Amino acid sequence: MISVGEANRLDEEEFVAAFGAVFEDSPRLARRAAGARPFESFGDLSRAFRAAMYAAPRGEQLDLMRAHPDLAGKAAVAGELTEESAGEQASAGLDRLSLQEYEAFTAMNAAYREKFGMPMIVCVREHDKESILKNARDRLKNSPEEEFETALREISKIADLRLRDLVEDENGGG
To answer: May I ask the CATH class of domain 64-162?
Structure first.
């Protein structure tokens, strides 16, 4: 764990090394967040990461979305997830699916990608496997624009939880 004060003292490369995995395969967003220093609190740090994501051009946001793995998909089966994604998917039981559940996730992933052109993104730490599938069924009713905004909100939640794994919140929530 690192304190907010320590995060403020890191040079840009150290900051990116420490926080580059907050957004899936997108360390450039950590580099942008570094530019908002100094941070007074964990809340300031979290807001800087969220602002970096929302300020990114739409194409870069879509690249960020597409960097996320499918839920219980081929990368998970092959052991090719980032450490962060593997832990998150395991927290929802996605690493322990029955054949029937695996087939349900495979079908959901395919339907979602076909409709939206990106993987289904959900903050799995807030769910279990059943609620993820229900959430996916509900979200498949969204328009592409609604889903784009929903994906950004989910990524924001994921990033915030990843930051909480890395940074001491000295102010109790800041």
So the answer is: mainly alpha
